[in-house]
Amino acid sequence: MTSTDDLIASLAADAKPVRRLRPPLVRAAAWLALFVALVGAVTLATGAWPEMFARLRDQRFAVELTATFVTGLAAVIAAFYLSLPDRSRFWAFLPVPPLALWLASSGYECYRNWIELGPQGWRLGRSSDCFVFILTMSIPVAVALYWVLRRAKPLDVTRVLAIGGLGVAALSAATLQFYHPFDVTVIDLAVHVIAVLIVIGVMTAAGKNGPRILPSKI
Amino acid sequence: MGVVTNFETQTASDEWAGLMAAAQSGDAASYRRLLTAVTPYLRSVAGRHHRDRADIEDSVQDILLTVHAVRHTYDPARPFKPWLVAIARRRIIDRLRGQGRRRARETFLAPEHETFAAPETNTYEAEPDARALRDAVAQLPEGQRQAVTLLKIEEKSLKEASQATGMSIVALKVSTHRAVKTLRKILERGREKT
Predict the structure, then answer these.
(1) What is the chain A residue with the closest CA to B77?
(2) Count of CB contacts below 8 A, A vs B?
(3) CB contact under 8 A, A23 and B75
(4) Of B30, B141, B125, B116, which Cα lies nearest the Cα of B76?
(5) Are residues A141 and A172 in contact, defined by beta-carbon separation less than 8 angstroms?
(6) Which pLDDT value is given to residue B3?
(7) Contact (CB<8Å) B87/A84
(8) Which CATH number fits domain B121-189: 2.40.30.170, 3.40.50.150, 2.60.120.10, 1.10.10.10?
(9) Chain B neighbours among A 17-36 (CB < 8 Å)?
(10) Distance (Å) from the C-alpha of residue A136 to the closest C-alpha of chain B?
(11) Buried (b) or exposed (e) across B57-79, using 16+ Cβ within 10 A?
(12) Which residue among A72, A90, A177, B152 is least packed, with the fewest CB closer than 10 Å?
């Protein structure tokens, strides 16, 4: 009993003013705006936009790219909500509909390629490049997202970072489309999915072992 | 009754929300009032999951420490209690999981589990047999028996033994030494027989 009273006394003595976190949607929007601005600047500088506009005339591609990007947005927003103690766990399902659309539209394209090209539809496009691109880009983006999310000191770090990992990987995959002007083959799709799973896995593992790696957790 | 309780809970939560908002801006008195006020409530929440009083108290302290660490995540526009309960649940679950892991790995050691690496130390037959020793002492020659009885069994000092028997200290030492040797022989013979 007394030790709990002592604890309360020492916690009260440590009642320094704290800066309240802004609402999760505001924080997510700020982070995403910075991301879009950076990627926009880089893609403009590398002259990737004219080709992108040309490809966006293909409705299926437009749907796929939008779904990929929206998956990224939704997952990042969900991660910000989930990092707070009193928000519903159902936020974790926010990225599910766009994710389903993303997989369905790339899957459909694979199927069409397969029908049209026969065995050629199974060729390994430039998948290894995509793989490396998604993983390489995910590292700095993941670190940047982690940096902001850890301010909330999430109680369930693993869940937050798993969803955050999906967001990071989806945003990287959307960015990849600027430098990946090919039709998707089955192998390409598999490679994208594997890259996304690796990013999620690494971030989840980082969450599990976080207290040993990064000190700012509880 | 239910309506009254709900109303009371509502007011408590509102009051706690106000106290937490003050605590966030560094008001130590409000913070202390808040933590003192929520502690009995946290005890009752923890009491639903732990049987041991010590576990309940440890969980309550875990929760208070976590509340302190994440107090910047509370938004005063939202109700306080769900925020507190979410933290409490998490910490209680963490403790229960830890206990589950420990129980799976460790076994409580009762006295009957006690054992030693050397096998002979665990057999009752090998325990020193007081009766055999008494018999062996009885078989000793007079001088040796007296010396052993006084010095080893009655645990008298050499001086006292010397006064009691009239033997010199040196003679007593020699007799004891010989007696121990003889005893060892007698006991070994006895063990070979059995």
Answers:
(1) A23
(2) 80
(3) yes
(4) B30
(5) yes
(6) 45
(7) no
(8) 1.10.10.10
(9) 17-21, 23
(10) 32
(11) bbbbbbbbebbbbbbebbbeeee
(12) A90
Question: Looking at residue A20, what DSSP letter applies?
Answer: P
Q: What is the pLDDT of residues B120-166, one digit of tens each?
A: 555 655 556 777 888 888 888 888 888 888 888 888 888 888 888 88
User: What is the location of CATH 1.10.1740.10 in chain B?
Assistant: 12-105
Contact B60, B36 (CB under 8 A): no
ipTM here: 0.78
- Calculate how close chain A gets to B92, using CA atoms only, in Å: 12
Class of domain B12-105: mainly alpha
pLDDT tens track, chain A, 218 positions: 458 888 999 999 888 899 999 999 999 999 999 999 999 999 999 888 888 888 888 888 899 899 999 999 999 999 999 999 989 989 999 999 999 998 888 877 777 767 776 666 555 555 667 778 888 888 899 889 988 998 888 888 888 888 998 999 899 889 988 887 666 666 777 777 888 888 888 877 877 665 444 434 33
Q: Which of A20, A86, A218 sits opposite B69 (nearest CB)?
A: A218
Does residue A3 sit at the B interface (CB-CB below 8 Å)?
yes
Per-domain boundaries in chain A: 24-213
Q: Please answer whether residues A106 and A98 qualify as being in contact, where contact means their C-beta atoms are separated by less than 8 angstroms.
A: no
Average pLDDT, chain A: 83
Among B26, B64, B82, beta carbon nearest to A86: B82
B20 and A8 in contact (C-beta within 8 Å)?
Answer: no
Q: Which of A1, A11, A16 shows the shortest C-beta gap to B26?
A: A16
Query: Among B27, B76, B87, whose Cβ lies nearest the Cβ of A15?
Result: B27
